Structures are given as C-alpha cells and as structure tokens.
What does this fold into?
Amino acid sequence: MQKPTLPKGTRDFGPVQMARRNFIFDTIKSTFQQFGFMPLETPAMENLSVLTGKYGDEGDQLLFKILNSRPHEAKEVEKEKMQQEFTRLLAQNSNSSLLTEKGLRYDLTVPFARYVVMNRNDIAFPFKRYQIQPVWRADRPQRGRYREFYQCDADVVGTDSLLCEAEIVCMMNQVLTQLGITDFTIKINNRKVLTALAEMAGAPGQEGPLCVAIDKLDKIGREKVEQELAERGFSPESIGKLDPVFTMQGTFGEKIQQLQQLFASSETGREGVSELQEVMELVNGFGLQNPRLEFDVTLARGLSYYTGAIFEVKVNNVQIGSISGGGRYDNLTGAFGLPGVSGVGFSFGVDRIYDVMEELGIFPAHNAASTRVLLVAFDAEARKYALPVLRQLRQAGINSELYPDQTKMKKQLDYANAKSIPWVVLIGSDEMASGQLALKNMQTGEQQSVPVEGLIGKVSQ
RNA sequence: GAGGUUGUAGCUCAGCUGGUUAGAGCGUCGGUUUGUGGCACCGAAGGUCGCGGGUUCGAACCCCGUCUUCCUCCCCA
It folds into this structure.
C-alpha cells in the first residue's frame, strides 16, 4: 500500500501546534472583541462570479476553482460543449460555468463584502465584524507561504472615519505585544499618495507598475528601481520627478511636511497626506507607549481594491513576509451592486505569526489546556474506586483522566511523562483500605497521602 | 509561470570513483524490576533507498521522466 500524503502547501496541526495556534487565535479574538467587533463565518466556497476580478490578474490566477460535480451525468450535447470549453481553458485562463462555477475563498474581505450586500437591510451600520477562517491560494509554497492558511480579519464598513484606521494600529500593537513580539514595524501609506505620485510623474493611472517598482527600494536600491521603472515604460523625466520619493527621510511628521510641499498642485495627493496626518494624530491621541508606526511612501500592496490607507506589519530581523496587512477600500461592495459603502479592514496571518514566534522561541511553555491529573489504578476494583474520584476532579474543573487499559505502572507513568501531566494519583488496595490516596508530583517525584477531599486543593495549586 | 534544490527506518542523518545480507543516533516495543517514571544495561521489531522507466554482469549511487521538499524571482498572509 502506498503511504498517504498531503496536498502541496497544506499541513496537519498536531496537539502541540494546536495549543500554540489556539493561543494566537484566542489573543487575536479577545482583542477584536474588546474593540467591538462581532464574529462572522462564511462558506469555504463562493460562486466564482463573487471572487473573480477582485484581486487583479495575479490574484485571479491563484484562485482554486472547483470542478462542477457529476460531469459524467451531463447530456451528450452538453458533454460536447464541455469538451470544447475545456480545450479553450487549456489555451487561456478564463472561466467556463459549464465546467466550474465555484471557487475556494481567496481572502475574507471579499466574502465579507458579499455578505454585507446580501444583508444590507438587516445590518446596523457602521458594521464591525471579525472573521477567523482558512483561505486558499494556488501559490507556489515557500517559507511562510502556504496554499491553505488562516486569516484573522477585522473590518468596519459604513463609515469613512479615520478613527477606524487609528484603531487598527492599536489592535496591531496590542495583539503582537500580548503575543510577546516586540520588535516590529507598522508601515502605513495611502493609495491617494501613490495616485498623485503617478500623476506627478506624468503617468496618470500607472500607479500599479510604479508601486511594484518603488516597493523594492529598500531591497534592491535606487539605481535598480530606476532601471525597472525605465523598463516599465517610464521616461527619464518622469523618473526625475520622483526624486523626492527616493530621498525622503525623517520622522513621520517631517515626511508628511515634505509631501505636502510636493503635492502643492495635486488635490488627491494633499488629501492622502492629510489623511495620513490625521491617523497619526489619532494614534497619538490614544497615548500608545510605542506605536511603532512608520510612514513608508514605497509601501504599495498588491490587492487592487484598496483606495485609501494601506497597512503592513513586518517583524524586524526575521526573514519572513508581512504578518499583517490591510487598508481602506471605498467601493468593494460596489462590485456587488451596493455603491457608496466605505470600509477598512486588516488581517493577521496566523501561520506566519506562528513561524515567527517559533523562530524567536517565545511560545509560553505551559499549556493550560492539557491534562493535570492522571489516575492510575492497579486492578479492576481500583478502577471502580477511581471513577467517582475522576468525576469529582472533573466537576472541580480539573482536566483529568484514568488510564484506559490495565497495564503495568511503568507504562502508565511513561504516559504521564509523555503528556507532561504534572500529577498522578495511584490507587491500589492500600489506598482503598485507608481512604488515603497516593498523590505523586511527577516533576519532583515526591509522593504524599491525601484523602479524596484533599485532592482537589493539592492539585489545583 | 521561470530557475535551482531535496527525497534512505517513526524522527535526524551516514552510505567511499556503481560491487555480497543498506548503517548509526534518537524514538518505539520487550526484559533486568508482576505497586512507582526520567538513569543504566541487555534484546527485538522496523526500509520494494519518493515513484516509473532506462544504462549495466551488477544501481541507494549514472541517465530520462514524474511527484515531493526547500530556496530565489514574480506575487503575497
């Protein structure tokens, strides 16, 4: 028989990993709730019409599409059409509802927008929801990149208040700090600034290619960026006009001032800059000790639906992509027939956060969810005696178990060791006769006799 | 999508320019010890060398294909 395998880019999560993942999920969830967000879940699969065209060409390529069920039951005429469609699909990337009409969700924001539109009459705006579910991308797996991974989204729709942006910065700070990640940077920029830059460079509407190039500034340096801009069709004068972008330095406020001058004649640009400034002021208003917020003109982000602020969080000195990101999208619901609903949201990448925490070695050692007490019985009578004891422990909220098989004590103690169970209660004829149970501390090896009633107190310390 | 890389026991890896029955450590199981774990000692189980084809008297090793792993680019959480 062949050994079973997992599909590329997917993983199992064993008990140890799950305990750690749940620690991350719980931290994120409680922060979201603290800030007034309500839970939502949507199906793993969506109609392809919901998904396509929302993530740009690159994104569309990465969609997992689901083959329509029971193609063999189609009528002969349809089968012929299906074959033609399949030939067409092999030649170019497109959809054919005859073959596939559903796909796995690519992120949580678009399904959320779909939900908002479908439930617009029942929703009280501004609507704040959080959503923690897996998403799927037919990407090539790499470090920190999987084909199935979890996102933890929080979005607000129905308000364009920049308070939402400021609160996102607060939540990013709170979650990462609580997880024990301290050396990180929250980068912020605004799509309007990028739009204005493109206009200024005499290439209106070309912010896409512009961003892709300047986004690499800190990675490949100015010369190579200019070279890439030239390759992407920007003229030498255009590139010259971008000079201030390359040389921009200083604090958040200083950069803002430089841009204000630069955008003297661009309304869009000034708008973007003043939004950035207001977000900064609001964040300061919250009085964060260390907001770790940095303005980065070269921050672009790929998703095509962003229109205002954009965020990205990088952990410093760890070689992995961003662990969180988001932004404002003014018209995502417009794609589903409900224009004029502005939204802003962000997402934590749990899988990457996990990788970062593992690399930094900052997972808490103790696991509150595991077994605290193992009952070891020597014979059938002792087992019978153990059952009510087990029940009492559990009723007192103490995770406990009785070794299910009657085997040698060595094996049972080994089991306790393997599961790092801190306490073992031994029950045999002596204990049953005296009513004093033998309680063993597995770390120190100490053993004491305690009556059943005393057990709970000893063990819950 | 382009380029590179990896695959040998449950895990981490050896395996010489192709040459008998493919090894180690850890882990597992059994024993020394039928009511006391971690240590020690003794013993055992466990592998169509990723899969398929080819070259050869002979392939874990060479060639081709395929899948997988990880990496760079692209893009992204």
Notes: The radius of gyration of chain A is 29 Å.
